[in-house]
Amino acid sequence: MALAGGLLLVSGCAGHGGIRQTFDKTLQAVGLKAAAPPPHSVPLRFQAGDNLNAGDGERGVSLVVRVYQLRERKRFEDAAFEVYLDEQRERDVLGDDLLGVTEFLLAPGQRHEVLEPLPADGRHVGVVSLFRAPAPTRWRLVFDAGKAAGEGVTIGLHACAMTTPGPALETVLATPPHSLSSSRCPPLRR
């Protein structure tokens, strides 16, 4: 009778993940397993200029923006612009560093705010803007998710480049990240 009651209790716990959770907590308590970090979110704010995606032209047009949830940033930062134009190639190049991606369309002058959820092992947030004629170093930015979780990240989107005042920025730029002074738009491909 006691055995049947014990099995019933164990099966009830197993149905709700209770045994696994208890086992994991026991392993953590004795130092055999590190506690998994909890999932977290990063507030993202996007502000599109009136000249959004205009390149060297005069008229702004809509822009596709992608937000990447990443384990590591190296492959993301090393990938060429063309990689991000093909979803399969993007997945192949980023490999297991890619945890997820969110895509949206921004119109000139539009604001967009989102609370980007990251899985527990998401350490970086990457942003790619698919400009028609991207400035060489300003179409992709990557942020430390831990540093960005509190205040969030604000990104300005312009004719061919992005700007940010965010202290969580990990991308190394030759000029201040909040300035467009050295960003020149290449000619539009016609």
Automatic annotation (TrEMBL):
Domain of life: Bacteria
One Pfam family, short name: T6SS-SciN
UniProt xrefs under NCBIfam families: VI_chp_3 (TIGR03352)
Protein name: Type VI secretion protein
Organism: Lysobacter concretionis Ko07 = DSM 16239
